[in-house]
Protein backbone atom coordinates (compact mmCIF):
# COMPACT_ATOMS: atom_id res chain seq x y z
CA UNK A 1 0.00 0.00 0.00
CA UNK A 2 1.27 3.46 -0.78
CA UNK A 3 1.32 6.35 1.59
CA UNK A 4 -1.26 9.10 1.84
CA UNK A 5 0.85 11.57 3.75
CA UNK A 6 4.59 11.41 3.82
CA UNK A 7 6.68 13.69 5.97
CA UNK A 8 10.40 13.72 5.28
CA UNK A 9 13.05 15.53 7.32
CA UNK A 10 10.52 18.22 8.05
CA UNK A 11 11.78 21.25 9.93
CA UNK A 12 10.13 24.50 10.75
CA UNK A 13 12.32 27.28 11.98
CA UNK A 14 11.04 30.53 13.35
CA UNK A 15 13.14 33.59 13.45
CA UNK A 16 13.23 35.10 16.91
CA UNK A 17 14.96 38.23 15.72
CA UNK A 18 12.46 40.91 16.68
CA UNK A 19 14.51 43.75 15.26
CA UNK A 20 12.19 45.53 12.85
CA UNK A 21 14.87 47.59 11.16
CA UNK A 22 16.88 44.56 10.12
CA UNK A 23 13.71 43.04 8.70
CA UNK A 24 13.15 46.09 6.53
CA UNK A 25 16.78 46.06 5.43
CA UNK A 26 16.38 42.40 4.59
CA UNK A 27 13.32 43.24 2.53
CA UNK A 28 15.15 45.75 0.38
CA UNK A 29 18.43 43.86 0.04
CA UNK A 30 16.71 40.62 -1.00
CA UNK A 31 17.71 39.03 2.29
CA UNK A 32 21.43 39.57 1.72
CA UNK A 33 22.16 41.52 4.88
CA UNK A 34 20.38 39.89 7.74
CA UNK A 35 21.26 38.45 11.12
CA UNK A 36 19.17 35.46 12.05
CA UNK A 37 18.22 34.09 15.40
CA UNK A 38 16.77 30.73 14.40
CA UNK A 39 14.58 28.62 16.65
CA UNK A 40 13.45 25.13 15.78
CA UNK A 41 9.75 24.65 16.32
CA UNK A 42 10.06 21.30 14.57
CA UNK A 43 13.23 19.41 13.76
CA UNK A 44 13.71 16.49 11.40
CA UNK A 45 10.24 15.02 11.58
CA UNK A 46 9.77 11.80 9.65
CA UNK A 47 6.70 9.65 9.34
CA UNK A 48 4.47 8.04 6.79
CA UNK A 49 0.73 7.59 7.04
CA UNK A 50 -1.44 5.26 4.98
CA UNK A 51 -4.93 6.05 3.81
CA UNK A 52 -7.52 5.08 6.39
CA UNK A 53 -5.16 5.78 9.26
CA UNK A 54 -6.14 8.08 12.06
CA UNK A 55 -3.14 9.59 13.72
CA UNK A 56 -3.17 11.23 17.10
CA UNK A 57 -0.64 14.00 17.62
CA UNK A 58 0.30 14.17 21.29
CA UNK A 59 2.56 16.47 23.18
CA UNK A 60 2.84 19.07 25.91
CA UNK A 61 2.02 22.72 25.32
CA UNK A 62 4.59 24.38 23.11
CA UNK A 63 5.97 21.13 21.77
CA UNK A 64 5.08 22.02 18.18
CA UNK A 65 1.72 20.33 17.70
CA UNK A 66 -0.01 23.33 16.16
CA UNK A 67 3.02 24.09 14.01
CA UNK A 68 2.84 20.54 12.69
CA UNK A 69 -0.90 20.73 12.04
CA UNK A 70 -0.47 24.05 10.19
CA UNK A 71 2.16 22.42 8.03
CA UNK A 72 -0.02 19.39 7.37
CA UNK A 73 -2.89 21.69 6.45
CA UNK A 74 -0.56 23.45 3.98
CA UNK A 75 -1.26 26.74 5.70
CA UNK A 76 2.43 27.43 6.22
CA UNK A 77 5.46 26.14 4.39
CA UNK A 78 8.24 24.06 5.90
CA UNK A 79 11.66 25.64 6.25
CA UNK A 80 13.32 22.40 5.23
CA UNK A 81 12.16 18.98 4.16
CA UNK A 82 8.95 17.97 2.47
CA UNK A 83 5.40 17.04 3.09
CA UNK A 84 3.70 15.15 0.31
CA UNK A 85 -0.03 14.83 0.61
CA UNK A 86 -2.08 12.93 -1.91
CA UNK A 87 -5.28 14.92 -2.20
CA UNK A 88 -6.76 17.93 -0.49
CA UNK A 89 -6.21 18.62 3.17
CA UNK A 90 -8.46 20.59 5.44
CA UNK A 91 -7.60 21.98 8.84
CA UNK A 92 -10.15 22.46 11.58
CA UNK A 93 -9.11 24.69 14.43
CA UNK A 94 -10.95 26.46 17.20
CA UNK A 95 -10.28 29.84 15.71
CA UNK A 96 -11.29 28.87 12.20
CA UNK A 97 -11.71 32.19 10.46
CA UNK A 98 -15.33 33.20 10.34
CA UNK A 99 -16.57 36.65 9.42
CA UNK A 100 -17.88 38.18 12.64
CA UNK A 101 -20.33 40.54 10.95
CA UNK A 102 -22.00 38.04 8.70
CA UNK A 103 -24.56 35.53 9.88
CA UNK A 104 -24.16 31.77 9.96
CA UNK A 105 -25.75 31.11 6.59
CA UNK A 106 -23.58 33.66 4.82
CA UNK A 107 -20.52 32.30 6.57
CA UNK A 108 -21.29 28.77 5.46
CA UNK A 109 -21.59 29.92 1.85
CA UNK A 110 -18.53 32.13 2.00
CA UNK A 111 -16.25 29.57 3.63
CA UNK A 112 -17.36 26.88 1.20
CA UNK A 113 -16.55 29.19 -1.70
CA UNK A 114 -13.12 29.82 -0.23
CA UNK A 115 -12.58 26.09 0.13
CA UNK A 116 -13.12 25.84 -3.61
CA UNK A 117 -16.67 24.48 -3.78
CA UNK A 118 -18.96 25.61 -6.58
CA UNK A 119 -22.35 27.26 -6.03
CA UNK A 120 -24.13 24.04 -7.02
CA UNK A 121 -22.13 21.93 -4.58
CA UNK A 122 -22.83 24.44 -1.84
CA UNK A 123 -26.57 24.26 -2.53
CA UNK A 124 -26.40 20.48 -2.27
CA UNK A 125 -24.46 20.45 0.96
CA UNK A 126 -26.09 23.40 2.67
CA UNK A 127 -28.83 21.41 4.41
CA UNK A 128 -26.32 18.82 5.66
CA UNK A 129 -24.09 21.50 7.08
CA UNK A 130 -27.06 23.23 8.70
CA UNK A 131 -28.26 20.00 10.30
CA UNK A 132 -24.81 18.97 11.40
CA UNK A 133 -24.10 22.30 13.07
CA UNK A 134 -27.25 21.93 15.26
CA UNK A 135 -27.56 25.70 15.21
CA UNK A 136 -31.04 25.91 13.67
CA UNK A 137 -32.38 29.43 13.63
CA UNK A 138 -29.27 30.83 15.30
CA UNK A 139 -27.75 30.60 11.83
CA UNK A 140 -29.55 33.82 11.01
CA UNK A 141 -27.67 35.68 13.74
CA UNK A 142 -24.28 37.31 13.16
CA UNK A 143 -21.30 35.23 14.30
CA UNK A 144 -20.21 37.82 16.84
CA UNK A 145 -23.18 36.84 19.00
CA UNK A 146 -22.17 33.13 19.04
CA UNK A 147 -20.60 31.34 21.96
CA UNK A 148 -17.27 29.62 21.47
CA UNK A 149 -19.02 26.23 21.35
CA UNK A 150 -21.36 27.43 18.63
CA UNK A 151 -18.46 28.76 16.60
CA UNK A 152 -16.57 25.51 16.91
CA UNK A 153 -19.64 23.56 15.82
CA UNK A 154 -20.14 25.74 12.78
CA UNK A 155 -16.46 25.64 11.86
CA UNK A 156 -16.40 21.89 12.21
CA UNK A 157 -19.60 21.42 10.24
CA UNK A 158 -18.25 23.48 7.35
CA UNK A 159 -14.79 21.92 7.28
CA UNK A 160 -15.93 18.30 7.20
CA UNK A 161 -18.38 19.01 4.41
CA UNK A 162 -15.72 20.40 2.10
CA UNK A 163 -14.85 16.79 1.31
CA UNK A 164 -11.18 16.71 2.25
CA UNK A 165 -8.94 13.71 1.71
CA UNK A 166 -6.90 14.54 4.76
CA UNK A 167 -8.54 16.08 7.78
CA UNK A 168 -6.58 17.75 10.55
CA UNK A 169 -8.46 18.47 13.75
CA UNK A 170 -6.55 20.84 16.00
CA UNK A 171 -8.21 20.57 19.42
CA UNK A 172 -11.36 21.86 17.83
CA UNK A 173 -13.53 19.36 19.62
CA UNK A 174 -12.45 20.24 23.13
CA UNK A 175 -14.94 23.14 23.11
CA UNK A 176 -18.01 21.29 21.88
CA UNK A 177 -20.08 19.29 24.38
CA UNK A 178 -19.98 15.53 24.52
CA UNK A 179 -23.09 14.95 22.43
CA UNK A 180 -21.57 16.97 19.64
CA UNK A 181 -18.23 15.24 20.06
CA UNK A 182 -20.01 11.89 19.72
CA UNK A 183 -21.64 13.05 16.53
CA UNK A 184 -18.27 14.10 15.17
CA UNK A 185 -16.92 10.73 16.15
CA UNK A 186 -19.57 9.08 13.97
CA UNK A 187 -18.61 11.33 11.09
CA UNK A 188 -14.95 10.62 11.65
CA UNK A 189 -15.63 6.86 11.69
CA UNK A 190 -17.41 7.37 8.37
CA UNK A 191 -14.32 9.09 7.01
CA UNK A 192 -12.11 6.30 8.27
CA UNK A 193 -14.24 3.74 6.44
CA UNK A 194 -13.95 5.80 3.27
CA UNK A 195 -10.20 5.50 3.61
CA UNK A 196 -9.56 9.13 4.49
CA UNK A 197 -6.68 10.12 6.67
CA UNK A 198 -7.28 11.99 9.86
CA UNK A 199 -4.87 13.78 12.14
CA UNK A 200 -6.10 14.48 15.60
CA UNK A 201 -4.20 16.98 17.70
CA UNK A 202 -4.81 16.74 21.41
CA UNK A 203 -3.19 16.61 24.81
CA UNK A 204 -5.82 14.21 26.01
CA UNK A 205 -4.40 10.70 25.86
CA UNK A 206 -7.76 9.00 26.34
CA UNK A 207 -9.38 10.80 23.38
CA UNK A 208 -6.49 9.81 21.16
CA UNK A 209 -6.71 6.20 22.33
CA UNK A 210 -10.42 6.08 21.48
CA UNK A 211 -10.28 7.71 18.10
CA UNK A 212 -6.98 6.82 16.53
CA UNK A 213 -5.10 3.73 15.49
CA UNK A 214 -1.71 5.41 15.39
CA UNK A 215 -0.08 8.19 17.30
CA UNK A 216 2.91 10.43 17.16
CA UNK A 217 4.34 11.98 20.28
CA UNK A 218 6.15 15.24 19.78
CA UNK A 219 8.52 16.37 22.48
CA UNK A 220 10.09 19.84 22.15
CA UNK A 221 10.05 19.87 18.40
CA UNK A 222 11.20 16.31 17.81
CA UNK A 223 9.40 13.02 17.34
CA UNK A 224 9.73 11.04 20.54
CA UNK A 225 7.77 8.08 19.24
CA UNK A 226 5.64 7.13 16.27
CA UNK A 227 3.84 3.82 16.50
CA UNK A 228 0.53 2.05 17.09
CA UNK A 229 -1.70 4.11 19.33
CA UNK A 230 -1.50 1.99 22.50
CA UNK A 231 2.26 1.88 22.61
CA UNK A 232 2.62 5.62 22.19
CA UNK A 233 -0.20 6.57 24.53
CA UNK A 234 1.09 4.27 27.28
CA UNK A 235 4.52 5.78 27.09
CA UNK A 236 3.13 9.32 26.89
CA UNK A 237 0.84 8.78 29.89
CA UNK A 238 3.73 7.35 31.84
CA UNK A 239 5.78 10.43 31.04
CA UNK A 240 2.96 12.77 32.01
CA UNK A 241 2.40 10.95 35.30
CA UNK A 242 6.08 11.07 36.08
CA UNK A 243 6.11 14.72 35.26
CA UNK A 244 3.12 15.39 37.49
CA UNK A 245 4.86 13.74 40.41
CA UNK A 246 7.69 16.21 40.24
CA UNK A 247 7.53 19.28 42.44
CA UNK A 248 6.64 22.62 40.87
CA UNK A 249 10.27 23.73 40.83
CA UNK A 250 11.46 20.51 39.28
CA UNK A 251 8.79 20.80 36.60
CA UNK A 252 9.89 24.31 35.76
CA UNK A 253 13.50 23.25 35.80
CA UNK A 254 12.77 20.39 33.40
CA UNK A 255 10.93 22.65 30.98
CA UNK A 256 13.69 25.21 31.17
CA UNK A 257 16.31 22.55 30.50
CA UNK A 258 14.49 21.16 27.49
CA UNK A 259 13.93 24.61 26.07
CA UNK A 260 17.60 25.55 26.36
CA UNK A 261 18.47 22.28 24.71
CA UNK A 262 16.07 23.10 21.90
CA UNK A 263 17.62 26.55 21.53
CA UNK A 264 21.10 25.07 21.63
CA UNK A 265 20.31 22.75 18.76
CA UNK A 266 18.83 25.62 16.78
CA UNK A 267 21.96 27.73 16.90
CA UNK A 268 23.83 25.93 14.19
CA UNK A 269 21.03 26.01 11.71
CA UNK A 270 21.16 28.36 8.78
CA UNK A 271 17.89 29.32 7.16
CA UNK A 272 18.25 28.98 3.42
CA UNK A 273 18.20 32.36 1.83
CA UNK A 274 16.35 32.92 -1.38
CA UNK A 275 18.23 32.50 -4.59
CA UNK A 276 19.27 35.77 -6.08
CA UNK A 277 18.23 35.95 -9.68
CA UNK A 278 20.13 38.14 -12.08
CA UNK A 279 17.39 37.69 -14.62
CA UNK A 280 14.83 39.21 -12.27
CA UNK A 281 17.15 42.06 -11.46
CA UNK A 282 17.70 42.66 -15.16
CA UNK A 283 13.97 42.89 -15.87
CA UNK A 284 13.55 45.13 -12.83
CA UNK A 285 16.26 47.42 -14.13
CA UNK A 286 14.48 47.43 -17.49
CA UNK A 287 11.28 48.72 -15.94
CA UNK A 288 13.26 51.20 -13.90
CA UNK A 289 14.92 52.59 -17.01
CA UNK A 290 11.53 53.12 -18.67
CA UNK A 291 10.56 55.08 -15.57
CA UNK A 292 13.83 57.02 -15.64
CA UNK A 293 13.23 57.86 -19.29
CA UNK A 294 9.79 59.15 -18.32
CA UNK A 295 11.29 61.37 -15.62
CA UNK A 296 13.84 62.66 -18.11
CA UNK A 297 11.10 63.39 -20.64
CA UNK A 298 9.07 65.28 -18.04
CA UNK A 299 12.08 67.38 -17.08
CA UNK A 300 12.74 68.20 -20.75
CA UNK A 301 9.12 69.21 -21.25
CA UNK A 302 9.37 71.66 -18.36
CA UNK A 303 12.59 73.32 -19.57
CA UNK B 1 9.18 37.88 -14.55
CA UNK B 2 7.74 34.42 -14.01
CA UNK B 3 6.03 35.55 -10.82
CA UNK B 4 4.30 38.39 -12.65
CA UNK B 5 2.54 35.89 -14.89
CA UNK B 6 1.85 33.65 -11.94
CA UNK B 7 0.18 36.56 -10.16
CA UNK B 8 -2.00 37.38 -13.16
CA UNK B 9 -2.87 33.72 -13.63
CA UNK B 10 -3.87 33.42 -9.99
CA UNK B 11 -6.32 36.29 -10.36
CA UNK B 12 -7.72 34.85 -13.58
CA UNK B 13 -8.27 31.36 -12.17
CA UNK B 14 -10.02 32.75 -9.12
CA UNK B 15 -12.02 35.43 -10.91
CA UNK B 16 -15.42 34.02 -9.96
CA UNK B 17 -14.36 33.57 -6.37
CA UNK B 18 -13.11 37.15 -6.23
CA UNK B 19 -16.43 38.52 -7.47
CA UNK B 20 -18.56 36.49 -5.10
CA UNK B 21 -16.32 37.14 -2.11
CA UNK B 22 -16.42 40.87 -2.78
CA UNK B 23 -20.20 40.66 -2.50
CA UNK B 24 -19.80 39.14 0.96
CA UNK B 25 -17.32 41.87 1.80
CA UNK B 26 -19.92 44.47 0.93
CA UNK B 27 -22.53 42.67 3.00
CA UNK B 28 -20.24 42.47 5.98
CA UNK B 29 -19.24 46.14 5.68
CA UNK B 30 -22.83 47.27 5.88
CA UNK B 31 -24.13 44.59 8.24
CA UNK B 32 -26.41 46.22 10.78
CA UNK B 33 -26.69 49.50 8.83
CA UNK B 34 -30.18 50.77 8.09
CA UNK B 35 -29.27 52.43 4.80
CA UNK B 36 -26.86 49.67 3.81
CA UNK B 37 -25.47 49.90 0.29
CA UNK B 38 -27.06 53.34 -0.14
CA UNK B 39 -24.06 54.68 1.80
CA UNK B 40 -21.93 53.97 -1.24
CA UNK B 41 -23.72 56.89 -2.94
CA UNK B 42 -24.46 59.01 0.12
CA UNK B 43 -20.86 59.03 1.34
CA UNK B 44 -19.38 60.65 -1.80
CA UNK B 45 -22.31 63.05 -2.17
CA UNK B 46 -21.94 64.28 1.39
CA UNK B 47 -18.25 64.76 0.88
CA UNK B 48 -18.87 66.74 -2.30
CA UNK B 49 -21.30 68.94 -0.38
CA UNK B 50 -18.69 69.72 2.27
CA UNK B 51 -15.98 70.48 -0.28
CA UNK B 52 -18.32 72.59 -2.34
CA UNK B 53 -19.18 74.75 0.64
CA UNK B 54 -15.57 75.09 1.76
CA UNK B 55 -13.82 75.53 -1.58
CA UNK B 56 -16.58 76.57 -3.95
CA UNK B 57 -18.47 79.06 -1.84
CA UNK B 58 -15.83 79.81 0.79
CA UNK B 59 -12.32 79.96 -0.63
CA UNK B 60 -13.10 80.74 -4.24
CA UNK B 61 -15.85 83.20 -3.42
CA UNK B 62 -18.08 83.94 -6.35
CA UNK B 63 -15.55 83.49 -9.13
CA UNK B 64 -17.80 81.44 -11.35
CA UNK B 65 -16.75 78.79 -13.85
CA UNK B 66 -13.51 76.86 -14.16
CA UNK B 67 -12.41 76.48 -17.76
CA UNK B 68 -15.99 76.76 -19.02
CA UNK B 69 -17.38 74.35 -16.43
CA UNK B 70 -19.35 75.16 -13.28
CA UNK B 71 -17.14 74.70 -10.24
CA UNK B 72 -19.29 71.89 -8.89
CA UNK B 73 -18.70 69.84 -12.07
CA UNK B 74 -14.99 70.56 -11.90
CA UNK B 75 -15.02 69.46 -8.27
CA UNK B 76 -16.82 66.14 -8.71
CA UNK B 77 -14.71 65.15 -11.71
CA UNK B 78 -11.69 65.56 -9.45
CA UNK B 79 -13.11 64.31 -6.20
CA UNK B 80 -14.70 61.07 -7.42
CA UNK B 81 -11.56 59.65 -9.05
CA UNK B 82 -9.55 60.88 -6.07
CA UNK B 83 -11.84 59.12 -3.64
CA UNK B 84 -11.39 55.95 -5.64
CA UNK B 85 -7.60 56.24 -5.74
CA UNK B 86 -7.03 57.28 -2.15
CA UNK B 87 -9.68 54.96 -0.78
CA UNK B 88 -8.18 52.05 -2.65
CA UNK B 89 -4.63 52.76 -1.52
CA UNK B 90 -5.83 52.93 2.08
CA UNK B 91 -7.93 49.82 1.98
CA UNK B 92 -5.59 47.77 -0.22
CA UNK B 93 -2.67 48.41 2.07
CA UNK B 94 -4.71 47.13 4.98
CA UNK B 95 -6.48 44.42 3.07
CA UNK B 96 -4.24 41.48 3.95
CA UNK B 97 -3.95 42.50 7.57
CA UNK B 98 -7.67 42.98 8.04
CA UNK B 99 -8.78 39.84 6.24
CA UNK B 100 -6.03 37.46 7.29
CA UNK B 101 -8.20 36.19 10.14
CA UNK B 102 -10.47 34.60 7.57
CA UNK B 103 -7.69 32.66 5.93
CA UNK B 104 -5.24 31.92 8.77
CA UNK B 105 -6.17 28.27 8.99
CA UNK B 106 -6.58 27.52 5.33
CA UNK B 107 -4.69 27.38 2.09
CA UNK B 108 -5.60 30.56 0.27
CA UNK B 109 -3.57 32.85 -1.97
CA UNK B 110 -3.41 36.20 -0.22
CA UNK B 111 -3.10 38.22 -3.43
CA UNK B 112 -6.79 37.44 -3.91
CA UNK B 113 -7.59 39.39 -0.76
CA UNK B 114 -6.31 42.47 -2.58
CA UNK B 115 -8.41 41.76 -5.65
CA UNK B 116 -11.54 41.34 -3.53
CA UNK B 117 -11.03 44.82 -2.10
CA UNK B 118 -10.27 46.19 -5.54
CA UNK B 119 -13.49 44.83 -7.04
CA UNK B 120 -15.46 46.64 -4.31
CA UNK B 121 -13.67 49.89 -5.14
CA UNK B 122 -14.27 49.53 -8.87
CA UNK B 123 -17.96 48.99 -8.23
CA UNK B 124 -18.08 52.22 -6.22
CA UNK B 125 -16.25 54.29 -8.80
CA UNK B 126 -18.62 53.05 -11.49
CA UNK B 127 -21.56 54.17 -9.37
CA UNK B 128 -20.12 57.64 -8.78
CA UNK B 129 -19.04 57.94 -12.39
CA UNK B 130 -22.55 57.25 -13.60
CA UNK B 131 -23.68 60.31 -11.61
CA UNK B 132 -21.06 62.40 -13.39
CA UNK B 133 -21.99 60.84 -16.72
CA UNK B 134 -25.66 61.77 -16.31
CA UNK B 135 -24.72 65.38 -15.53
CA UNK B 136 -22.28 65.47 -18.43
CA UNK B 137 -24.67 64.02 -21.01
CA UNK B 138 -27.50 66.23 -19.80
CA UNK B 139 -25.41 69.37 -20.29
CA UNK B 140 -23.51 67.91 -23.27
CA UNK B 141 -20.07 68.60 -21.78
CA UNK B 142 -18.36 65.58 -23.31
CA UNK B 143 -18.25 63.44 -26.42
CA UNK B 144 -18.57 59.71 -26.97
CA UNK B 145 -14.87 59.21 -27.74
CA UNK B 146 -14.03 60.90 -24.48
CA UNK B 147 -16.54 58.89 -22.49
CA UNK B 148 -14.97 55.69 -23.75
CA UNK B 149 -11.58 56.73 -22.46
CA UNK B 150 -13.00 56.36 -18.95
CA UNK B 151 -12.07 52.71 -19.37
CA UNK B 152 -8.49 53.80 -19.94
CA UNK B 153 -8.63 55.64 -16.63
CA UNK B 154 -10.10 52.58 -14.94
CA UNK B 155 -7.44 50.29 -16.38
CA UNK B 156 -4.53 52.59 -15.60
CA UNK B 157 -5.65 53.40 -12.09
CA UNK B 158 -6.46 49.78 -11.26
CA UNK B 159 -2.96 48.67 -12.14
CA UNK B 160 -1.46 51.63 -10.33
CA UNK B 161 -3.32 51.14 -7.05
CA UNK B 162 -2.89 47.38 -7.21
CA UNK B 163 0.87 47.78 -7.55
CA UNK B 164 1.04 50.16 -4.63
CA UNK B 165 -1.29 47.86 -2.72
CA UNK B 166 1.00 44.87 -3.22
CA UNK B 167 3.95 46.75 -1.78
CA UNK B 168 2.12 48.52 1.02
CA UNK B 169 0.04 45.57 2.21
CA UNK B 170 3.22 43.63 2.93
CA UNK B 171 4.99 46.60 4.46
CA UNK B 172 2.03 47.32 6.74
CA UNK B 173 2.31 43.85 8.21
CA UNK B 174 6.06 44.10 8.75
CA UNK B 175 5.93 47.62 10.16
CA UNK B 176 2.63 48.87 11.49
CA UNK B 177 3.73 52.51 11.28
CA UNK B 178 3.50 52.38 7.50
CA UNK B 179 -0.24 52.77 7.78
CA UNK B 180 0.09 56.15 9.52
CA UNK B 181 2.64 57.27 6.95
CA UNK B 182 0.29 56.34 4.11
CA UNK B 183 -2.57 58.37 5.59
CA UNK B 184 -0.40 61.46 5.84
CA UNK B 185 1.22 61.12 2.44
CA UNK B 186 -2.18 60.67 0.82
CA UNK B 187 -3.44 63.81 2.54
CA UNK B 188 -0.48 65.70 1.13
CA UNK B 189 -1.18 64.42 -2.37
CA UNK B 190 -4.78 65.55 -2.05
CA UNK B 191 -3.63 69.15 -2.09
CA UNK B 192 -0.96 68.59 -4.73
CA UNK B 193 -3.46 67.11 -7.15
CA UNK B 194 -5.73 69.33 -9.26
CA UNK B 195 -8.96 68.33 -7.56
CA UNK B 196 -10.47 71.54 -6.31
CA UNK B 197 -8.01 73.78 -8.14
CA UNK B 198 -7.51 73.92 -11.86
CA UNK B 199 -4.27 72.84 -13.48
CA UNK B 200 -4.57 75.40 -16.28
CA UNK B 201 -5.01 78.35 -13.94
CA UNK B 202 -2.36 77.24 -11.49
CA UNK B 203 1.05 78.67 -10.76
CA UNK B 204 3.82 77.33 -13.05
CA UNK B 205 5.58 75.66 -10.13
CA UNK B 206 2.45 73.75 -9.19
CA UNK B 207 2.00 72.69 -12.82
CA UNK B 208 5.55 71.37 -12.91
CA UNK B 209 5.10 69.44 -9.70
CA UNK B 210 1.91 67.92 -11.09
CA UNK B 211 3.93 66.48 -13.96
CA UNK B 212 5.60 64.16 -11.48
CA UNK B 213 2.39 63.27 -9.69
CA UNK B 214 0.76 60.08 -10.96
CA UNK B 215 -2.47 61.04 -9.20
CA UNK B 216 -2.63 64.26 -11.22
CA UNK B 217 -2.21 62.22 -14.41
CA UNK B 218 -5.06 59.90 -13.44
CA UNK B 219 -7.42 62.59 -12.18
CA UNK B 220 -6.83 64.69 -15.29
CA UNK B 221 -7.51 61.66 -17.46
CA UNK B 222 -10.79 61.11 -15.65
CA UNK B 223 -11.79 64.72 -16.10
CA UNK B 224 -10.82 64.63 -19.77
CA UNK B 225 -12.84 61.49 -20.25
CA UNK B 226 -16.01 62.82 -18.74
CA UNK B 227 -16.30 66.54 -19.34
CA UNK B 228 -13.94 67.49 -22.13
CA UNK B 229 -14.30 67.25 -25.89
CA UNK B 230 -10.81 68.16 -27.13
CA UNK B 231 -8.87 64.89 -27.03
CA UNK B 232 -9.82 61.63 -25.33
CA UNK B 233 -6.54 61.32 -23.41
CA UNK B 234 -4.85 63.80 -21.16
CA UNK B 235 -1.14 64.56 -21.41
CA UNK B 236 1.72 64.38 -23.86
CA UNK B 237 3.84 61.33 -24.55
CA UNK B 238 6.24 62.14 -21.71
CA UNK B 239 3.31 62.10 -19.27
CA UNK B 240 2.29 58.66 -20.49
CA UNK B 241 5.85 57.38 -20.40
CA UNK B 242 6.38 58.69 -16.88
CA UNK B 243 3.16 57.19 -15.57
CA UNK B 244 3.55 53.77 -17.17
CA UNK B 245 7.23 53.54 -16.36
CA UNK B 246 6.44 54.22 -12.72
CA UNK B 247 3.45 51.89 -12.64
CA UNK B 248 5.16 48.94 -14.28
CA UNK B 249 8.18 49.36 -12.08
CA UNK B 250 6.01 49.45 -8.94
CA UNK B 251 4.03 46.45 -10.15
CA UNK B 252 7.19 44.45 -10.71
CA UNK B 253 8.57 45.33 -7.29
CA UNK B 254 5.19 44.69 -5.69
CA UNK B 255 4.82 41.22 -7.16
CA UNK B 256 8.27 40.25 -5.93
CA UNK B 257 7.79 41.60 -2.42
CA UNK B 258 4.41 39.90 -2.21
CA UNK B 259 5.70 36.49 -3.25
CA UNK B 260 8.73 36.78 -1.03
CA UNK B 261 6.62 37.32 2.04
CA UNK B 262 3.29 35.66 1.42
CA UNK B 263 4.30 32.36 3.01
CA UNK B 264 5.78 34.09 5.99
CA UNK B 265 2.97 36.54 6.59
CA UNK B 266 1.26 34.24 9.07
CA UNK B 267 4.50 34.00 11.02
CA UNK B 268 4.65 37.77 11.30
CA UNK B 269 1.18 38.28 12.71
Automatic annotation (TrEMBL), chain A:
> For this protein, what is any one GO molecular function term?
ATP binding
Keywords for this protein = ATP-binding, Membrane, Nucleotide-binding, Translocase, Transmembrane, Transmembrane helix, Transport
SUPFAM superfamilies referenced in this protein's UniProt entry, alphabetically? P-loop containing nucleoside triphosphate hydrolases (SSF52540)
Q: What Pfam families does the record tag this protein with?
A: ABC_tran (PF00005)
Which top-level group of life is the source organism from?
Answer: Bacteria
PROSITE patterns in the record, alphabetically?
Answer: ABC_TRANSPORTER_1, ABC_TRANSPORTER_2
The UniProt entry, under InterPro entries, shows: AAA+_ATPase, ABC_transporter-like_ATP-bd, ABC_transporter-like_CS, ABC_transpr_TagH-like, Bact_Polysacc_Export_ATP-bd, P-loop_NTPase
Name all ABC transporter domain ranges: 5-245
Q: Which Gene3D superfamilies match?
A: P-loop containing nucleotide triphosphate hydrolases (3.40.50.300)
SMART domains for the chain? AAA
Q: Where are the transmembrane segments?
A: 276-299
Task: Choose one Gene Ontology CC annotation of this protein and give it.
Answer: membrane
Task: Report the sequence similarity comment from the record.
Answer: Belongs to the ABC transporter superfamily.
Protein's recorded name: Teichoic acid transport system ATP-binding protein
Q: Which organism is it from?
A: Lacicoccus qingdaonensis
Automatic annotation (TrEMBL), chain B:
UniProt KW keywords: Cell membrane, Membrane, Transmembrane, Transmembrane helix, Transport
Q: What is its main location?
A: membrane
Q: Where in the cell is it found?
A: Cell membrane
MF terms (GO), sorted A to Z: ABC-type transporter activity
Q: How does it sit in the membrane?
A: Multi-pass membrane protein
Q: Where is the ABC transmembrane type-2 domain?
A: 35-261
* Leader peptide range in chain numbering: none
Give the record's GO biological process terms: lipopolysaccharide transport
Q: Name one GO cellular component term.
A: plasma membrane
Q: Which residues cross the membrane?
A: 37-59, 71-92, 112-138, 150-174, 181-199, 241-259
Q: Please name the Pfam families in this protein's record.
A: ABC2_membrane (PF01061)
InterPro entries the record matches: ABC2_TM, ABC2_TM_bact-type
The family database entries (PROSITE patterns) matched by this protein are listed as: ABC_TM2
Q: Which family does it belong to?
A: Belongs to the ABC-2 integral membrane protein family.
Name-wise, this protein is Transport permease protein
Give the originating organism.
Lacicoccus qingdaonensis
Amino acid sequence: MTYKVKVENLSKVYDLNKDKISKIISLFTFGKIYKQKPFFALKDINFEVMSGDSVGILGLNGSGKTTLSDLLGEVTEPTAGNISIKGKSSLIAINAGLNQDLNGIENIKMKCLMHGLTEVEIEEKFEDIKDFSELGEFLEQPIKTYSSGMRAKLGFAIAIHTDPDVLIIDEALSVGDETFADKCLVKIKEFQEQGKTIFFVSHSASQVRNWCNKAVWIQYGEVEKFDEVDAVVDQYSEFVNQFKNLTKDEQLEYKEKMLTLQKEKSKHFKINKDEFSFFNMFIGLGFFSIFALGVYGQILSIL
Amino acid sequence: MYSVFQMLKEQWINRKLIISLSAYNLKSAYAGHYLGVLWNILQPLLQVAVFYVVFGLGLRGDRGDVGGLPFIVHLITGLFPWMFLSGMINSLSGSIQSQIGLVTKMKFPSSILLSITLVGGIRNVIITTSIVLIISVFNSYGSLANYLSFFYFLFASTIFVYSLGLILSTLTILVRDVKNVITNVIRMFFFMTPIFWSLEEANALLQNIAKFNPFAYLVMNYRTALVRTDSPFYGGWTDHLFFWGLTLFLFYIGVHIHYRFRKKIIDYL
